Amino acid sequence: MLVTIFSDGSYDFHRKAGGWAVWLESEKGCLVHYGSCPEFVSCSNHAELFAIHMGVTLAYREWGDAIHSFLIRADSECALRHVTKGPVQTRVRDREMLKIRSWLLDVFRKCGVQVLTEHVKGHQSPSLGYAFAMNNKVDKMAAKGRKSMTGQGFIRAHEALEISSE
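Now predict its structure.
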């Protein structure tokens, strides 16, 4: 089964707060989640990659072994490079993000799933097509998740981190 993940991350440098959002689609249905990022997320690229991490985590929780491929659509070329094993620059603050990257690549390898990515230019008119409309939706949800430092999304983010460290 193909799972399409529309993901977005948002980060406010003044508040030091990040948010994430995912819209997952498959033949078995649709999942929509958003929430705040954990404290180690320290920039928008981190929030973007964390959103992809949450999308993969939630997809496996819901559909498990039925998944044979992912199509990840995001407006962050940096996060998409992390997912596709492309070259990435690392800094000390990126250690946690490299752990997430490593976890994602391990999951993809162990599960034998195909991973496709598509860059969707952000902040475009939804009238340009479905991918742009979906990107606008997850963009708004990620901003909402960034502003809510408590609640369901925050709990889900920490649950996902526990899974990724196993």
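Confidence is low (pLDDT under 50) at residues 150-166.
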